[in-house]
């Protein structure tokens, strides 16, 4: 597949590589900076056949990506317009969590090691706490929107359907996202907020721990019925019981009883304060990158992101 709109002069800076896929808001290609040789992802959003709402989403995605700065969120590089498109250039990652889970299933279905699960949980919760502290609701958290670096760190990406809650809009209303990750309040067409993201991330964590979805059905009405009424199936994987306790809390049908990302960081996952994913770390971009790719990266094995005692 080829890039549809090549009219933007900024594209001359990039060598267009392999087609990566097509999502709800655009088509993605791997590109290489012609000068530095560094790889990026180019997401092209066609303006030919989309309405005003979709155009607004594209603008919002650019604004959100350009405004966030966290080691566990895919980094924005630049954006530019073509005759019939908007183009977003962002950090390239090695794979997605969805792909990794698929490979794990194909290789015998054994769960990931506990230390890896803990590290990924901590990184994703820190990223989500960062977004929520800025009143950003992602609205489409799923394994295909979670990316892995070559060093096996996870990053949230794809802000195409995110929303920013304001003082005059404290909840979202649209039924947006991916059905397998819909929260009960989204299924019922109710207002929702950051707590809906916590449900979706709980589904992701369930998949990380079990390599399966907590709710599945052959058709959408059946899936919605399961999400609304079915109890969460036990893990039965031999993992530490505290993993399941965390996930069950996130998959509470009543959003008022779900923990926030910051609650879990503070009370359930002990994240070293020196790690750059910790919300208390607010260094400049330069210092943050130095920490992220430096010795501090080995925190999960040397100092341990860990689960506290059950008591």
TrEMBL record:
ATP binds at residue 43. The keyword Kinase applies. It catalyses: L-threonyl-[protein] + ATP = O-phospho-L-threonyl-[protein] + ADP + H(+); L-seryl-[protein] + ATP = O-phospho-L-seryl-[protein] + ADP + H(+). It comes from the Eukaryota. The keyword ATP-binding applies. Its EC number is 2.7.11.1. Keywords: ATP-binding, Kinase, Nucleotide-binding, Serine/threonine-protein kinase, Transferase. It holds the Pfam family Pkinase. Residues 14-271 form the Protein kinase domain. Gene3D superfamilies: Phosphorylase Kinase, domain 1 (3.30.200.20), Transferase(Phosphotransferase) domain 1 (1.10.510.10). It is an enzyme of class 2 (transferase). PROSITE patterns: PROTEIN_KINASE_ATP, PROTEIN_KINASE_DOM, PROTEIN_KINASE_ST. InterPro entries: Kinase-like_dom_sf, NEK_Ser/Thr_kinase_NIMA, Prot_kinase_dom, Protein_kinase_ATP_BS, Ser/Thr_kinase_AS. CDD domains: STKc_Nek. One of its GO terms (molecular function) is protein serine kinase activity. Belongs to the protein kinase superfamily. This is non-specific serine/threonine protein kinase. It comes from Trypanosoma rangeli.
């Amino acid at each position: 597949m080829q890039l549809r709109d090549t009219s933007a002069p900024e594209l001359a800076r990039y060598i267009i590589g392999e087609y990566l896929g097509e999502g709800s808001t655009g088509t993605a290609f791997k590109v290489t900076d012609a000068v530095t040789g560094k790889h990026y992802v180019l997401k092209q959003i066609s303006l030919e056949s989309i309405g005003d709402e979709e155009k607004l989403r594209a603008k919002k995605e650019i604004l959100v990506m350009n405004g966030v700065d966290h080691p566990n969120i895919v980094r924005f590089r630049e954006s530019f317009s073509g005759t019939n498109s908007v183009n977003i250039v962002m950090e390239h990652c090695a794979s997605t969590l969805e792909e990794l889970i698929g490979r794990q299933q194909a290789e015998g279905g054994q769960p990931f090691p506990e230390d890896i699960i803990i590290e990924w949980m901590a990184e994703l919760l820190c990223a989500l706490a960062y977004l929520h502290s800025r009143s950003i609701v992602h609205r489409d958290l799923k394994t295909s929107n979670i990316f892995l670096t070559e060093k096996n760190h996870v990053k949230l990406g794809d802000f195409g359907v995110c929303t920013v809650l304001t003082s005059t809009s404290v909840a979202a209303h649209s039924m947006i996202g991916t059905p397998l990750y819909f929260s009960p309040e989204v299924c019922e067409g109710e207002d929702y907020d950051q707590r809906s993201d916590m449900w979706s991330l709980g589904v992701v964590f369930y998949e990380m721990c079990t390599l399966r979805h907590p709710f599945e059905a052959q058709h959408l009405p059946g899936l919605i019925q399961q999400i609304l009424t079915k109890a969460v199936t036990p893990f039965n994987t031999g993992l530490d019981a505290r993993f399941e306790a965390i996930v069950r809390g996130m998959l509470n049908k009543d959003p008022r009883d779900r923990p926030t990302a910051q609650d879990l960081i503070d009370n359930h996952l002990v994240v070293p304060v020196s790690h750059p994913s910790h919300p208390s770390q607010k260094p400049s971009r330069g210092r943050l990158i130095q920490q992220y790719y430096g010795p501090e990266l080995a925190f999960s094995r040397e100092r341990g992101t860990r689960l506290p005692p059950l008591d």
